[in-house]
Design brief:
Blueprint: H1 9-22, E1 51-53, H2 76-86, H3 89-97, E2 104-107, H4 109-118, E3 123-125, H5 135-138, H6 141-156, E4 167-170, H7 173-176, E5 181-187, E6 195-200, E7 220-223, H8 230-238, E8 244-249, E9 253-257, H9 261-281
Antiparallel strand pairs: 1-3, 2-5, 3-9, 4-8, 5-9, 6-7, 6-8
Length: 282
Amino acid sequence: MRRASSFTASALFVSSILITSLQRHSDACYLLPHRRNVRQDGRSLTRKSFFTTVMPSLLMPLVYQNAHAADDLSTTKEAAQYIKKYANQHFLRSVIESDYNFLYRGLSPDANKQLVDENSCGLVIKDEPFDLLDNETYGSTAAASYFQSLEVQMNANGLSIRPSNSHMGTTCPLEAAKWGTAVSIWPIGEQLNSVQFAWMEEGGLFWPTPTSKSSTPKTIAHSDGTHKTDDKRLSHALRGDAWEIMFRADNGFLAVPATFDDKLKQILRQKQRESFVTHHYH
C-alpha cells in the first residue's frame, strides 16, 4: 500500500470532500488528515492499483465459486445490497458485532478517478500487487526487512496469511486517507483460507515497530472464520483506535468511499434488523 503521490483534478476534488466528512471520525482516531506523503529522500510515494469498475451489464470474472454479474453500484443502497450478498460472511458478522466499525484502505488516484468518471459508489478491486515486501512502499529498507522477517515468522507459525499475499488496512479512515482516498473494504468469497485477517494482539501498527529496547515482541492475532471465537476477536480489533489489520482477499474486495459511511451503516443496520425479524417471526 504505497502512499499517494499525485492526483488528477477530479480525484483532488473528491479527496477534498472526503476530508470534511472524515473529520467526524476524529474522536475515534486522532491521526493526521489526508496529505501528500514523501519519503525521507523527498521523493513522493505512489501505489499501483489494478481494479475493476462495478457497472451495469459488466460481468465480473471473479474466481470464486458462484461468480456473478456485477450490480449497478450507483447508490449507497446498491452497495449495501452487494455487501450483504457477496461480502465474506465472517467479516460481515465481525463488522456487525463491532457495532459497524469498518476496515479502511487508501484508494489509488487512478481508481479514485474511475469512481468519479463512472459516478459509482464502489469498485471491486482484484489482482492488486502485494507491496508490503517492497522497499518503496514505506520508503524504507528497514520496513521491507521487517515485513520479510514477519513473513518467515508467520510461515513458521503455520499461518497462510502473510505479507506476500496480503494488504494492509486500518480501522481509521484518516490514516487510510494518507495513502489515497479513504475507502471501506469488503473482502469477497467464502472459500477456505481465501479471506483472512491478522493484527497485533495488543493493537496498534505493524510498522513502525516499538523502538524501546524494553519493548517485548508483539504477538500476532489471526482470524479466518473457522473458529467459534473468530467473529468476536476480529470485531474487537475493528473497534481498535487506528489499529492496522492485515487482510488476505484472494477473490478481491469491494471498496466503498468513506464519504458514504454514515448512509452505508444506516442501511446495513436496517437490513440486519429486517433479517432478524424475518428469522425470528416467520
